[in-house]
Design brief:
Blueprint: H1 3-14, H2 23-33, H3 39-63, H4 68-76, H5 87-111, H6 122-148, H7 150-161, H8 166-214, H9 225-232, E1 240-242, E2 245-247, E3 256-262, H10 267-278, E4 289-295, H11 304-314, E5 320-322, H12 330-338, E6 348-352, E7 358-360, H13 364-370, H14 379-388, H15 393-397, H16 402-410, E8 414-418, H17 422-436, E9 443-447, H18 455-461, H19 469-495, H20 499-508, E10 518-522, E11 528-531, H21 532-545, H22 554-561, H23 576-581
Parallel strand pairs: 3-4, 4-5, 8-9
Antiparallel strand pairs: 1-2, 1-5, 3-6, 6-7, 8-10, 10-11
């Protein structure tokens, strides 16, 4: 709102120019002044001036009986303090103001309808618009009428000083009250008709939007613009924002759009951001996509706290968001819940390709697992990724942290282990350090139970093992996403025969009360899950082997330790030259490493 226009509006309403004494002329002058504003804005601005003016007059009167300062202000402004002398007029003023407010709300409701985006019956639109024009005119005219009564209001006090009779004051009060009451009833009658017309228009619009929404996922679109306009731009040409910058729908043309539907951000959403924006491997500029955050509150109405949370995150995070989500159409929000099965407890990612096709109705798990490798985030791409990847260290750790990704790419031996038994953890770490001394290259990663991250996690943080509490949460989120993705892709029955699903479920459902811990060992494209007690038992054997096991990989040594040694000892003769190149000699039968002796012939 231009401050100069507001000053001119207030001046015109309170101090009319010469020759503009009648209300009709002054009303037309105000319409000319506000010609650039919408009809609802015209009514709201005029009511704002009226409220500010009468607020300054009536507030001292209202407080005069209990506040001496207010009483003094009322006396200085020649305002009456005894309400009984002007109660009929005050009641009529209240009636008129309430009528103007309900009519203005009705005008606002109509102006917020997406008239331009849908096809309505021309007769209904024409009749409703005529009523809108008339209603706005009546609101402006009635506001000026109220302001004309300010002198009468002060004359009530002056009449008391000049000792007018009670009868004379009563007659004047009733006459003034009658004028305001007449305007109030006219507005109320107009509101009854206008409200029905707005209801009819709203119902017709909702029916057409619902019909278009039902066809949105199966219909043919030339690009993503029609889809995005229908969902987010029914009432606003700049419905989106990135940080504080307002964005039109056209900026998303020719891009893959990930519609992120959620409550205010929680941990999975931050992990999603890391996977799609912050991760060091995300350097492919040809992957043209954007996250569009659609925050949805738990209830139908936004609270002040939810608005503050939205403002903080929308101005802090790199994704695009709906600019004023509390103004989104309830029809659209109900469609998300009813047709897309959005639930308040879980976020979902709906993917729209540049042609406006819905290629994935929930890519959340896919993104959490694969990150930008999942581009263009379609179901067919997800199937391709699962064909390429099995149970491996790469599947477990890729994308969680750059260090882990480096380990996987370099083919290092990695051991992920988890337990709530600190004594077992201490024993495990001690055995691992002893194994590393003879030359085993081994990286350790400790995980606590995702639901019990307390002093156990803090204790492990003090060791040299890499895995912060935040990364632990991301790891478990990743496993949960793998489990859901597998279930969605192959179903419950087939998943029982899928190794990835079996191994992930084994970790997620691990009974920490029954077992001491668990371990996953491997490198790159391999991984093997071992029970914790079995793991430490095999590690003790490797420690006993000492330098004779040097040359074996840790994973290979763990596998060999599971085998029983030969019952009878035997000797293998290896030529000296060959022995120099072989770092370890293993038994052909049990595969255990053999002790070395030098024999001279």
């Amino acid at each position: 709102m231009d401050p100069e226009i507001l000053k001119l509006l207030r001046l015109q309403m309170l101090c009319p120019c010469i020759g503009e004494s009648d209300i009709r002329t002054r009303t037309l002058v105000l319409f000319d002044l506000l010609k650039e504003y919408r009809w609802d804005a015209k009514a709201v601005l005029v009511l704002g001036v009226l409220a500010a003016t009468y607020g300054g007059i009536l507030l001292p009167v209202h407080l005069a009986l209990s506040d001496p300062v207010a009483a003094s202000i009322a006396t200085l402004n020649q305002l009456p303090i005894e309400r009984t002398k002007f109660r009929p007029w005050l009641e009529s003023l209240s009636l008129l103001v309430k009528a103007m407010v309900v009519v203005t709300k009705c005008i606002i409701r109509f102006e917020r309808l997406p008239i331009k985006q849908v096809k309505l019956d021309n007769n209904i639109v024409g009749e409703t618009m005529s009523s809108i024009y008339m209603a706005t005119y009546r609101v402006v005219k009635s506001s000026l009428a109220c302001l004309q009564h300010i002198p009468y209001f002060k004359q009530t006090q002056q009449a008391t000083k000049s000792r007018k009779t009670a009868g004379e004051l009563s007659i004047e009060s009733r006459r003034a009250a009658g004028e305001l009451s007449s305007l109030g009833y006219q507005l109320l009658n107009l509101h009854t008709r206008l409200n029905k017309q707005v209801d009819d228009s709203s119902k017709q619009i909702e029916e057409e939007i619902n019909q278009r929404l039902r066809n949105i996922t199966t219909g043919t679109h030339k690009d993503n613009q029609d889809v995005l306009h229908l969902l987010f731009s029914l009432q606003d040409d700049l419905p989106l924002q990135q940080y504080s910058r307002q964005i039109p729908i056209t900026e998303l043309q020719e891009k893959v759009i990930l519609l992120l539907l959620s409550k205010p951000p929680v941990e999975p959403l931050f992990f999603l951001l890391q996977q799609l924006y912050d991760h060091p491997s995300n350097t492919n500029t040809e992957q043209n996509y954007e996250i569009l955050w659609v925050p949805i509150p738990s209830s139908q109405k936004w609270t002040d706290e939810e608005k503050e949370i939205f403002d903080f995150y929308s101005n802090s995070l790199p994704w695009i968001s709906v600019r004023q989500p509390w103004l989104m159409s309830s029809t659209i929000l109900n469609f998300f819940r009813r047709e897309w099965h959005y639930g308040d407890d879980e976020a979902m990612v709906v993917v729209i390709d540049p042609n406006g096709r819905f290629v994935n109705m929930n890519a959340m798990d896919m993104v959490l697992i694969w990150g930008v490798k999942a581009y263009p985030f379609s179901i067919s791409r997800e199937n391709e990724l699962w064909e390429e990847h099995g149970w491996s260290m790469q599947l477990l750790l890729d994308g969680i942290h750059p260090t882990f990704e480096t380990w996987v790419k370099e083919g290092r031996e990695i051991c992920i282990f988890g337990s709530e038994n600190l004594d077992w953890v201490d024993e495990f770490v001690s055995l691992a350090r002893k194994i590393q001394n003879p030359g085993f290259q081994l990286e350790l990663i400790y995980l606590s139970n995702q639901r019990r991250q307390d002093e156990r996690t803090k204790a492990m943080e003090e060791s040299s093992i890499l895995f912060s509490p935040t990364l632990q949460q991301l790891f478990w989120l990743r496993l949960e996403s793998i489990e859901r993705s597998k279930l969605k892709r192959i179903g419950i029955e087939s998943s029982k025969l899928d190794r990835v699903f079996e191994e992930v479920t084994k970790l997620l459902d691990f009974d920490y009360g029954k077992h001491k811990g668990w371990g996953v060992i491997g490198k790159g494209s391999t991984a093997e899950t071992v029970d914790g007690e079995e793991m430490t038992e095999r590690m003790r054997k490797i420690v006993r082997w000492g330098e004779y096991a040097r040359g074996l990989g840790f994973t290979e040594a763990i596998e060999i330790a599971a085998e029983k040694p030969c019952e009878l000892s035997h000797t293998v003769v290896v030529p000296f030259e060959e022995a120099l190149t072989r770092r370890v000699v293993t038994c052909e039968k049990c595969k255990w490493p053999m002790k070395r002796f030098v024999a001279y012939q």
